[in-house]
Design a protein that fits this description.
Elements: H1 27-35, E1 41-46, H2 50-62, E2 66-69, E3 85-86, H3 91-94, H4 98-114, E4 119-125, E5 128-129, H5 136-149, E6 158-160, H6 162-168, E7 177-188, H7 190-203, E8 207-209, E9 212-219, E10 225-232, E11 238-248, H8 254-261, E12 272-280, H9 281-284, E13 289-293, E14 300-306, E15 309-313, E16 317-318, H10 330-343, E17 356-362, E18 381-385, E19 391-395, H11 401-418, H12 446-457, H13 463-473, H14 477-486, H15 502-511, H16 517-524, H17 527-530, H18 539-550, H19 554-572
The chain binds flavin-adenine dinucleotide.
Flavin-adenine dinucleotide (FAD) binds next to helix 2, strand 9 and strand 17.
């Protein structure tokens, strides 16, 4: 029987059937599954960022037996540190990379359909001033091309005059403003996009094992890599996985992985660092994102509204640092604040307004030209079969991950077939049209969101929490809500006044492969970035919940707290420079 709304009308949403994944969705069970593997697998994928997750999803859906090992949490690397945009990349038009824009806007449309809870349209206001390198007419021509490349299927741009801009963004600098096109791209939650892609892979049998590092690639006949030794980052236990093929999807660690598989591999990457800062939404009060050209170097960056916050980024500087330790410096923060000052001078945003920062390394392909500026380095990806049969993917964008993943699996399948290691016919992966888990039975419309949130409030959950659950989990929000019905203590807020609740910790452990408190606070809930105290006020509650669910002893619980405090210290270290 269908659900009824308060007025008796049929609801637009009906409860999705809870998933019974054939592969584990808890981290402990995933490691157990690795240890219990009796036969060789088709592919070991090293790296659980968006690329590793996307490749696993595509390969598992084609019928391949795959394992993903990730040394930390899923999306620990660049895939939780992006600008969180699913975008065509307007600025690539400036560089005449039209095919890259076309590919990106096509993927944007697909993601909007397959993950409407995670990918949402976002307006971008592009203020153009007298004396700008590109005058308004040229920007508008670019906008028409941008809309055209999306085959006019996405909302089209329109150009606002200065008085309309003032009404929309009162703090925007109007001096010399000639107009501002308002165009549309999409915003996402990069970490959850990665996670749901990985969860979909488990639904098709992939074993996804976070906190497990690939440490040795062992060779068999013909010097081909035939097993991977992995080490549990928490217990130190080692497991040997026999495999037909290996994929290196380690993003900014790609050179380290190549070096582990074969000493003296030539460097592939030219990593650049990108930093974002988070401030209260009320400081700029933006209804749309604003495109800014930095006053120092004319680089494009964005101020992006993000729930009750706004983030500004990104910088783009060459960086040679361990990707695990990359962080914002005070110079980075000041660079971003100068852009804010230039576009919103009356807002007086200062270092004291910065709530959080994040920094990531772009795994860009080195083109051997050190004179090239950081922003000019290609965002395109590279896939190649290297020594021992290892397939490496590097570069690219979050936006195009689905297509890239399909290309990587094609390359891996071809390589396995040519080595006579794969003879079966594979099915189609159908990733262009298949929804991610929270997108099953969910179209993202306001009506459906309201109906689902209403259903959740009927389980005794307050409406702000219900809305938050729907926008975070899509149709799976009901599964989180049911945890509260089963155990009312799971309905408690993690931080007074915020909508994140204890049930999200339980769900992260049982269904979302979380293996540490940092996973929950940084990537499952993003409290580390959104909360004024960087989630420290929730740390004890999260650790206590995980300790009782996972049987941690007090030493482990203390380690977890120390690890999270280290994470926050890294994020806020710029203040002490
Ligand atoms: P990663 O996400 O870094 O994943 C690699 C993983 O490999 C890591 O999790 C790491 O822990 C793991 N690993 C490494 N070594 C091992 C090992 N030995 N064993 C096991 N695991 C290992 N793209 C967009 O489309 N839109 C944007 O708005 C956007 N903004 C960006 C902003 C910034 C600042 C940056 C840096 C990038 C941005 N990008 C954006 C690009 C996009 O984020 C990246 O291309 C993408 O996230 C790369 O994913 P990946 O899986 O290759 O790498």
């Amino acid at each position: 029987m269908g659900h009824r709304g308060p007025d008796g009308s049929a609801l637009l949403w009906s409860a999705a059937v809870p998933y019974e994944s054939p592969a584990p969705t808890s981290r402990a069970a995933a490691f157990q599954a690795l240890k219990s593997l009796e036969h060789e697998v088709d592919l070991v994928i090293v790296g659980g960022g968006i690329n590793g997750a996307g490749i696993a999803r595509d390969a598992a859906r084609r019928g391949l037996k795959v394992v993903v090992v990730e040394q930390n949490d899923l999306a620990f690397g660049t895939s939780s540190r992006s600008s969180k945009l699913i975008h065509g990349g307007l600025r690539y038009l400036e560089q005449y990379r039209v095919h890259l824009v076309f590919e990106s806007v096509t993927e944007r449309q697909r993601l909007l359909k397959c993950a409407p809870h995670l990918v949402a349209p976002l307006g971008f206001l592009f203020p153009v001033y007298e004396g700008d390198k590109q005058p308004l007419a040229m920007i508008r021509a670019g906008m028409w091309l941008y809309d055209g490349l999306a085959l006019f299927q996405h909302e089209r741009h329109r150009t606002l005059d200065p008085s309309e801009c003032k009404a929309l963004v009162p703090q925007l600098d109007l001096t010399g403003l000639t107009g501002a096109p308002l165009y549309w791209d999409c915003a996402t939650d990069d970490a959850r996009l990665t996670l749901e892609t990985a969860i979909d892979a488990t639904l098709h049998g992939a074993i996804i094992c976070p906190w497990t590092k690939a440490i040795t690639f062992e060779r068999g006949a013909g010097q081909r890599i035939r097993s991977v030794v992995v080490k549990c980052a928490q217990s130190g236990e080692e497991v040997r996985i026999k495999t037909r093929g290996v994929i290196n999807a380690t993003g900014p660690w790609a050179d380290d992985t190549l070096e582990t598989s074969r000493k003296d591999s030539p460097p592939l990457l030219r990593p650049t660092k990108g930093v974002h800062i988070v401030i209260d939404r009320a400081r700029l009060n933006l209804p749309h994102a604003v495109v800014c050209r930095h006053p120092d170097d004319s680089r494009v960056l964005f101020a992006i509204p993000w729930g009750d916050r706004t983030y500004v980024g990104t910088s783009d500087t060459d960086e040679q640092v361990d990707p695990s330790e990359v962080r914002a410096s005070r110079a980075d923060v000041r660079y971003l604040l100068r852009a804010v000052e230039s576009y919103f001078p009356s807002a007086n945003v200062s270092e004291d307004d910065v709530i959080a920062t994040w920094a990531g390394l772009r795994p860009l392909i080195s083109e051997g030209d050190s004179a090239q500026s950081e922003s000019e380095v290609s965002r395109e990806h590279k896939i190649f079969v290297g020594d021992g049969g290892m397939v490496t993917v590097a570069g690219g964008k979050l936006t195009t991950y689905r297509k890239m993943a399909a290309e990587v699996v094609d390359a891996a399948v071809q390589e396995l077939k040519s080595s006579a290691l794969l003879t079966i016919e594979l099915s189609a992966s159908e990733t262009e049209t298949s929804p991610l888990p929270g997108g099953v039975g969910f179209d993202g419309s306001e009506g459906q969101r309201g109906a689902l949130a209403y259903e959740i409030t009927k389980l005794g959950i307050e409406s702000d929490i219900a809305t938050h659950l729907v926008s975070t989990y899509g149709s799976r929000a009901i599964e989180v809500a049911r945890l509260v019905k089963k155990d009312p203590s799971a309905g408690a807020r993690l931080i007074e006044g915020r909508p994140e609740i204890v049930a999200q910790v339980d769900f992260a452990i049982q269904q979302e492969l979380a293996g540490s408190a940092t996973d929950v606070l940084c990537r499952r809930t993003q409290l580390s970035l959104r909360d004024h105290q960087n989630g420290l006020g929730a740390l004890d509650a999260v650790v206590a919940r995980m300790q009782s669910a996972l049987g941690w002893n007090s030493e482990r619980a203390n380690e977890e707290k120390a690890r999270y405090r280290h994470e926050v210290a890294l994020q806020t270290a710029w203040r002490n420079e």
